[in-house]
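Re-running Transmembrane 4 L6 family member 1 to confirm reproducibility after the cluster update. Everything else is unchanged from the original entry.
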Amino acid sequence: MCTGKCSRCIAVTLYPLALISIICNIVLFFPDGDIKYAQDGHITEEVKYMGGLVGGGLLVLLPALYINLTGKQGCCGNRCGMFLSIAFAAVGVAGALYSLSVAAVGLQNGPLCKVVLIWGTPFKTRESLKVLVTLHLSDSSYLTDDSTWWQCTEPKNIVQFNIGLFATLVVTSSLEAILCAIQMINGLFGCLCGACVDKGG
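Result of re-run:
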């Protein structure tokens, strides 16, 4: 198996995934394309954790850059270079898992939105009674029951906005975690067997 070539393929694949994560996280700060919600602090709590920007973005770009740049220089052809790629890939796994966790919680809790005159998270189970004293909430998840989305009156289409972007973060961070984990295994093989650069890998 040509571990050096495999490493470079993984690195190239990680670039667009990290970019998508960063863009999704930045866009989440501007519901309805308006900066006023960020200025007023009316942003979903999980967006502030910047899972996509830091975890799925910067921490995944580190191994991607290392593997790609050192691979071009032939450094991934030696066992030391492949060992370092394991460490960088581990950082990528940690970042991707952080992004995945934040996005999953963001999906579960739902968006911060204006309900009647109160700002709150109406789909968050433990907060629902505090925020919506007079409204009846269904036991089913808001993700599968769009009949409850009307409760969020502002920002416009905030439920669809949050679901779309957080779901995208879940998918991209899952792929990033898988790819970085594969690179850890690939790097281990490279340490033990070499990266077959001599053979044109």
